[in-house]
Amino acid sequence: MAGNRRKKHHFSRIHAFSCGKTSFKGDHSLIGGPGFSRVVHCNDPESFEASVLNYSGNYVRTTKYTLATFFPKALFEQFRRVANVYFLICAILSFTPLSPYSAVSNVLPLVVVIGATMGKEVLEDWRRKKQDIEVNNRKVKVHCGEGAFDYTKWRDLKVGDVVKVEKDEFFPADLILLSSSYEEAICYVETTNLDGETNLKLKQALDATSNMHEDSNFQNFKAIIRCEDPNANLYTFVGSLELEEQQYPLTPQQLLLRDSKLRNTDCIYGAVIFTGRDTKVFQNSTGPPSKRSKVERRMDKIIYFLFGILVLMSFIGSIFFGIATREDLQDGKMKRWYLRPDDTTAYYDPKRAAVAAVLHFLTALMLYGYLIPISLYVSIEIVKILQSIFINQDLHMYYEETDKPARARTSNLNEELGQVDTILSDKTGTLTCNSMEFIKCSIAGTSYGRGVTEVERAMARRKGSPLEEEVTEEQEDKASIKGFNFEDERIMNGSWDNEPHADVIQKFLRLLATCHTALPEVDEENGKISYEAESPDEAAFVIAARELGFEFYERTQTSISVHELDPVTGTKVERSYSLLNVLEFSSSRKRMSVIVRSEEGTLLLLSKGADSVMFERLAENGREFEEQTKEHINEYADAGLRTLILAYRELDEKEYIQFNEEFTEAKNSVSADREELAEEIAEKIEKNLILLGATAVEDKLQNGVPECIDKLAQAGIKLWVLTGDKMETAINIGFACSLLRQGMRQVIISSETPESKTLEKSEDKSAAAAALKASVLHQLIRGKELLDSSNESLGPLALIIDGKSLTYALEDDVKDLFLELAIGCASVICCRSSPKQKALVTRLVKTKTSSTTLAIGDGANDVGMLQEADIGVGISGVEGMQAVMSSDIAIAQFRFLERLLLVHGHWCYRRISSMVCFTLKMLIDKLG
Amino acid sequence: MKGRRSSSDSSSSSKTKKPQYSKFTQQELSACKPILTPGYVIGIFIIVGVIFIPVGIISLFASENVVEIVDRYDEGCIPPNYSDDMLAYIQNSDTNKTCTRSLKATKLMKSPVYIYYQLDNFYQNHRRYVKSRNDKQLWSKKHEDETKNCAPEATSNGLSIVPCGLIAWSLFNDSYGFSIKNKMVKVSKKNIAWESDKKHKFGSDVYPKNFQNGVLIGGGKLNSSIPLSKQEALIVWMRTAALPTFRKLYGRIESDIQANDSVTVIIENNYNTYSFGGKKKLVLSTTTWIGGKNDFLGIAYITVGGLCLFLAISFILVYVVMPRPLGDPAFLSWNRHPAGHQI
User: What InterPro entries does the database record attribute to this sequence (chain B) (predicted)?
Assistant: First the structure.
């Protein structure tokens, strides 16, 4: 069994930096103080001490109402609408003699209206209830004494229970990891449901508890965990574990969150610390802000206006009524004798005409009540539900591959879709599919790969190239392998052997197959190998290596095994490399390396990284292909590809031993700067490299994105791209999806210029910030001048701004200028922007231009933007559900936006507005 | 656990979330949505104009053909010595209320000639007045004592009044006698009320009781031996008017009145309109297919028709002077103000 073998692996070697000992840091002194008062008696939830604490159970309720609170709560919601309050007052008054007509005719419509809306609430809540029931009744193995584990429903879990979670199960509550089926007590966790990230995260238990691998170990296990109170912060955790009189610190490294999933690990044991509503997921969930459409707000204004007219009419009427009534009886003489003013009730009493007038005012309010269209609310509600059904049922917005139809999660924004002025879009996963394809490479100064990128195709299309058709046809013929779009007969199927520099090609491919942290997964039925990688880039490399004849198939504790094509015999041979160290990738290092020993016994350092860090690390004798490779890299970048440089180095034994000692020491040190130390040592060995070549992967655009953007532009809708990517990538994608065009003049506002870099290094931070701001302001003013002076012939402008500049551009005194410039530009791209900045930009556009904004995104980092915008559209794609949960409408692909806006939005708006107009017209008819 | 998951897997694989195709949900039902092109609009306006103007003219002619004599008599019937205190005259039961008026027919009035009385400034639509009746009591003998809503004219000396309420109490009680060339003309007072009122609202077994014998006497009295369903003057009166100026049918003259005939009317001027300053008028009128004399309908038709023709002509002019192709995208808002956006 693959699982059993893997149990013995020393994975700490793979994750050299992330594993290690933990120490009590500053925060731990807070334990026991205010905000850190939780005490959990592990494995002893029934004890007296535990029952005193009385933490809530693991039952969760996501419904808005319970049976008891439904009526008061739902009614309160209903009467927040002014019109409903008016009708309620009328209904009450209609039971008095004031009423001009019978009570039934007054109460019935109100009951129908409120009943219908409340019925809708019940229906929606019932769906949530069913989901709750399903979740609460899931089962998990819980320690029930004597070392035996038995299935218990999630709802019956208590704080302190020890649970056993098996592979691919969700964690039922927030747990502290005690031990796992791995020796080192590590486990892999998928947190897609929490933050949208698809890569697996590594968790590791404390050494003190890591040796309990069997159910029976828990028979006499007792521990006390003291930790922080429930809070919403997903990435921090402070606590301590008391085991046999010994204190051990607990960090997020031991925390397993509810709703994340156990992956690649057979089972884990954990102690429940937060249950039900106390879990971090539930602490994080906030109700979405209620959004109302413009039509609805306009309608409210009309209702207020009508209400004003109603009051005015009643007021004037009652004045005249008062005067006429007073005059009916003067000096004992009756004027309108047929009304018998001498013998009357308070309502018509000439002697107390003022009172009669006030009473008449109330009656008139009811009498002219037709002015307030009670039916309009019901009709609109019904029409909107119908429109939501149309959106949900649209076959043109159904995505076969993921089996996902469009879903209008709120029905009250349908017509707003037709009013969208500006779309703010995320890039990764929204415009692109977040899958990387290995498409080109440059080895030993020769460029391989004949695939055509989306960017090149877009460019060709713009130039009217006739090649386009053939290219697409060819594409479809090929059996597609996910992550691989490489075609070049020169190196495919083993023919690389005949190329010049065959030895370099071999090394290049070997490097691809070994320098990574991916895990192979062998399909037991057909022997096919798939890979579990931390990032899609990495998966693309391993797949490329496999397709080119270097199939990585097994990772053991100390080795990586590869099926290699032997150029001499032409057969596949197994080669295994003993894996000595992994120097991980980090955003500051921008590279990763592995140190392996080949079967021949040579020590190799294999390294891949970004061109900016790799070229300076080349050895004098390793720069043979530098010029050509640089040239190729620039070509690739122009074609919208992500590039990495591959290089290697042979180590001698002595050097390695010295490095390993230092590195191990650094890794095992307890000091806080452990990671920096390790990085420093790694830095020392990653030098004097010999260049092999470069790879290029395409960040694939989703289907139909350029066409969709083009259509939206024709409809006068502006598209802003807000991305966390770097500027070059963002510009590449801009070209790929025809957001940027050759004829456009780009206004680039950047704080990454050499001057600003030197500014940043200076000591005086505030002066540096001021200077940076001045520079951004200067760039903005220059851009504005360009915009003002521009005439048609020069072509439209495109604004590209990076995150750091955006920080300054969004400050109060600059943001108007920024917005003016941005609105004047045909395309706007904000790169390197944080989730907060995305939300801020959205708010700026929404409030300053008072136009309708639509935000579209798929990841957890887009949630702020989605909630801030008038309409939030979530892409229900690969990256988790976070965005979808906070969106108003969920679609599966970016291109469906075209139909959603231009067809559904248009129709919904037309239909709703004509219905409102028609209903108001009927009102006037009724009055007439 | 495993079993449960596999079963859910298999069910999800067989059940896709793909929406069912139906013409309704895909919004593909055949529909017809006319586009208002200039041709259609102008055509419709011309057709409306061409139809409406003749209709209006015909209506106006019909209205012109109605012969109508209106005579206001409330002030004229007050003897000169009471002209300062008309109220005293009308409220005094001893004064002679008979008054003779002479009317002149300008044109031949073909029978039937309808006799109306017209009251002015009389609020039969007052909320108190309108509600002051009891339909149950009017309809059936069983509910004779039902006098809800009738106050203050519900009971008299402890006995319930039939018909109760202010409306019946204030029954109009002027009467007219007609003679042409000193010859009495017969006035038919039958069949002046709605057939449905007689058959379904006023009972044939309900007789007036205790009517007008309170302290304050309002309007006319009723013959207590005739059932309500036969008291057509009451039935007419009790169908309350919506406006303060109204005409109610008094009777019919079943013979022609020749042109230049002088009609002498002997009026019993009983009804008090003087206290609230209302006018009383006597109206003799013939009818045509359009009803009584009413120019409004004709004028409305002609106005609307004329407006349509005018619009049609102006649209034609606009179309000729400034033609533009249908659905020109250059007129879209973002194309009219090209703010940095180009297609």
Answer: CDC50/LEM3_fam (IPR005045)
pLDDT confidence of residue B168: 92
Final residue of a domain: which of B262, B286, B310? B286
- Partners of B6 on chain A (C-beta within 8 Å) are none
Q: Which of B25, B272, B334 sits opposite A393 (nearest CB)?
A: B25
To test the contact with chain B by mutation, choose from A149, A333, A337, A348 the residue with the greatest count of B C-beta atoms within 10 A, namely: A337
Distance to chain A for B274, nearest Cα, Å? 9
Final residue of a domain: which of B270, B286, B302? Answer: B286
**Which residue from B minimizes the CA distance to A343?**
B152
Given a contact cutoff of 8 angstroms between Cβ atoms, the answer to whether B161 and B148 are in contact is no
pLDDT the model gives residue B309:
96
Residues 6+ apart with CB under 8 A from A426: A721, A722, A723, A838, A856, A857, A858, A859, A861, A862, A865
The alpha carbon of residue B139 is apart from the nearest alpha carbon of chain A, in Å, by 22
Looking at this protein, which amino acid is placed at residue A115? G
Residue A845's contacts (CB-CB under 8 Å, 6 or more residues apart) are A422, A424, A720, A819, A822, A851, A853
B197, B80: one domain: yes
Instruction: Give domain status of residue B91, yes or no.
Output: yes
Count of the separate structural domains present in chain B: 2
What's the rounded Cα separation, in Å, for the pair A894 and A428? 11
> What pLDDT was estimated at residue A759?
67
Both B239 and B259 in one domain: the answer is yes
Tell me: the pLDDT tens digits for A831-873?
Answer: 877 777 888 889 899 888 888 999 998 876 787 788 889 999 9
**Residues B140 and B212 placed together within one structural domain of the fold:** yes
163-182 in B: which are within 8 Å (CB) of A? 166, 169-170
Residues B62 and B163 in one domain: no
Query: Which of B25, B129, B334 is closest, CB to CB, to A338?
Result: B129
Residue A679 three-state SS: helix
Cβ contact (<8 Å) for B128 and A344?
Answer: yes
DSSP H/E element including A553: strand A550-555
- The shortest C-alpha distance from B339 to chain A (Å) reads 6
Q: What is the pLDDT of residues B248-290, one digit of tens each?
A: 999 999 999 998 889 999 999 999 999 888 999 999 999 988 8
Instruction: Say which of B17, B153, B219 has its CB closest to residue A403.
Output: B17
Do residues B204 and B308 share a domain? no
Whole-model pTM: value is 0.73
Q: Do B221 and B270 belong together in one domain? A: yes
CA of A191, closest CA in chain B: separation in Å?
A: 20
Tell me if chain A has a CB within 8 Å of the CB of B337. no
pLDDT-flagged residues of chain A (< 70): 1-29, 32, 192-199, 284-290, 454-455, 458-459, 461-480, 534, 557, 567, 586-588, 670-674, 752-765, 790-794, 860, 877-882, 928
Domain limits for position B190: 68-286
Domain contains B250: yes
**ipTM, 2 decimals?**
0.83
Q: In terms of Cα–Cα distance, which of B49, B58, B47, B56 is closest to B299?
A: B56
pLDDT at residue B42, rounded to an integer: 95
Model confidence at B150, pLDDT cuts 50, 70, 90, reads confident
Range with the lowest mean pLDDT among A661-665, B133-137, B170-174?
A661-665
Indicate whether B220 and B296 sit together in one domain: no
CA A338 to chain centre: 77
Question: Domain for residue B325, yes or no?
Answer: no
| DSSP-derived pairing of the beta strands A162-166 and A139-143 | antiparallel
The residues in B 6-45 lying below 8 A from A, measured between CB atoms, are 16-21, 25-27
Catalytic sites of A, residue numbers: 426
Q: For residue A713, what is the DSSP state?
A: H
Question: B222 with B258, same domain?
Answer: yes
Token pair of A176 as six digits: 């502290």
Q: Could you tell me which chain B residue has the CA closest to the CA of A797?
A: B340
Quote the pLDDT of residue B12.
42
Domain annotation covers residue B44: yes
- B190 in reach of chain A (CB within 8 A): no
